């Protein structure tokens, strides 16, 4: 009788242990699932980022054929068109061809349609069919710094804590790429480099589908760009000096003390605003092997901002805040 009882006790013990283990495993799975829902995927430190030569950046100026679409600062930033200039000059009212009753913050073109953020409707996303003169509201997101790649839209959504958003034109859906508050960002190949305002404006990268989120610098960055297979950035923690990041070795090195802001790249030409010389626009020559840089002044006037668009530079001069000045790139 005792021999029969022992297996029963062991069986009961095994059953209780198995149930306890199963319940524990179930709870662990539940906890893991909860963590997955609230956490963000981060790429391991040894996972390299692949960079391409050309990056896509935000600009409120858009070339389409022989026309430039832009927010007319002299007319409440209403969407307007003008013909391309053949020389350095201001955009004059006499040269404006079309004006639409839609003030804009940013705009892009896909398949000859213009997508823009309508500032009179809380920066909602709109579409203009220019040939038919038809306007359509696309969504209610508060769109800021609108850009596009491969017929997909990317922007900062102000109504969702300045998160970086993706909008799919094919199925009319939008979603955030991460939980981070985003500052400046550029699209480079299959990745997006962005200023993470949730982490002290440090530089991060993420895939265009929202995967492979990765921290790139321990320094706060003012601005950044891709140049010759490396990332150049202005280090806000060191008097806005110029640094480089080798994505293969993941090492950062100081190149020069330039005290600059708004570092940008167009057609492999570097530009920045030189704070030390009174906010002039300068071009920048960089030798990555020698860690040397040389600045050349382009404007004598102080500027607040500039935008690179094909072979033109659009300036917001400090003394002419309601006008746009255009410089032809060499």
User: What name is given to the CATH topology?
Assistant: Methylamine Dehydrogenase, Chain H
Annotated CATH architecture: 7 Propeller
CATH superfamily label:
YVTN repeat-like/Quinoprotein amine dehydrogenase
Strand proportion, as a percent range, falls in over 45%
The portion of residues assigned to helices is: 10-25%
Largest sheet geometry: 11 strands, antiparallel
Question: Overall mean pLDDT score?
Answer: 88
The topology string of helices and strands comes to HEEEEEEEEEEEEEEEEEEEEEEEEEE
In total, the number of strands is 26
Distance between the termini: 101 Å
CATH class: Mainly Beta
Number of domains: 1
Poorly predicted regions are 1-46
Structural class: mainly beta
Q: How would you sum up the global shape?
A: globular
Write down the Rg: 26 Å
Number of helix segments? 1
Commentary on this structure:
The protein is built from one helix and 26 strands. The chain is mainly beta and 330 residues long. The chain has one domain: Methylamine Dehydrogenase, Chain H, CATH 2.130.10. Strands 1, 10, 11, 12, 13, 14, 15, 16, 17, 18 and 19 form an eleven-stranded antiparallel sheet that branches. It has a seven-stranded antiparallel sheet with strand order 2-3-4-6-7-8-9, with no helix packed on it. The N and C termini lie far apart (101 Å). The N terminus is likely disordered. This is DUF5050 domain-containing protein. Keywords: Signal. It comes from Clostridium septicum.
SSE diagram, text form:
Elements: H1 2-38, E1 55-56, E2 62-64, E3 67-72, E4 78-83, E5 89-90, E6 96-110, E7 113-118, E8 124-129, E9 134-139, E10 143-149, E11 152-157, E12 163-168, E13 173-188, E14 191-196, E15 202-207, E16 214-227, E17 230-235, E18 241-246, E19 251-256, E20 260-266, E21 269-274, E22 280-287, E23 292-297, E24 303-309, E25 312-317, E26 325-328
Domain Prolow-density lipoprotein receptor-related protein 1-like beta-propeller: 108-328
Signal peptide: 1-21
Keywords: Signal
């Amino acid at each position: 009788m005792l021999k029969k009882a022992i297996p029963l006790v062991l069986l009961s013990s095994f059953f209780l242990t198995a149930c306890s283990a199963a319940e524990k495993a179930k709870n662990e799975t539940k906890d893991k699932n909860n963590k997955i829902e609230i956490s963000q995927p981060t790429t391991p430190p040894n996972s390299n980022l692949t960079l391409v030569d050309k990056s896509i950046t935000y600009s409120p100026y858009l070339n389409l054929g022989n026309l430039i679409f832009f927010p007319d600062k002299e007319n409440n930033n209403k969407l307007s068109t003008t013909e391309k200039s053949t020389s350095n000059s201001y955009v004059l009212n006499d040269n404006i061809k079309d004006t639409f009753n839609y003030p804009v913050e940013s705009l892009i073109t896909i398949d000859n349609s213009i997508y823009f953020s309508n500032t009179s409707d809380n920066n909602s996303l709109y579409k203009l069919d220019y040939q038919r003169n038809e306007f359509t509201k696309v969504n209610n997101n508060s769109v800021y710094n609108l850009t596009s790649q491969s017929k997909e839209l990317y922007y900062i959504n102000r109504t969702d804590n300045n998160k970086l958003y993706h909008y799919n034109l094919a199925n009319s859906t939008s979603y955030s790429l991460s939980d981070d508050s985003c500052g400046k960002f550029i699209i480079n190949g299959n990745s997006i480099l962005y200023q993470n305002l949730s982490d002290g404006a440090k530089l991060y990268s993420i895939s265009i589908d929202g995967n492979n989120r990765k921290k790139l610098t321990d320094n706060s960055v003012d601005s950044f760009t891709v140049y010759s297979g490396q990332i150049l950035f202005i280090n806000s923690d060191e008097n806005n000096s110029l640094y480089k990041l080798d994505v293969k070795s993941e090492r950062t090195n100081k190149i020069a003390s330039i005290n600059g802001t708004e570092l940008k790249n167009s057609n492999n030409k570097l530009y920045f605003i030189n704070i030390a010389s009174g906010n002039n626009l300068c071009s920048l020559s960089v030798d990555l092997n020698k860690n040397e840089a040389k600045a050349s002044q382009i404007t004598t006037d102080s500027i607040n901002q500039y935008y690179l668009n094909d072979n033109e530079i659009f300036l917001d001069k400090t003394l002419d805040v309601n006008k746009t000045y255009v410089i032809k790139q060499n």
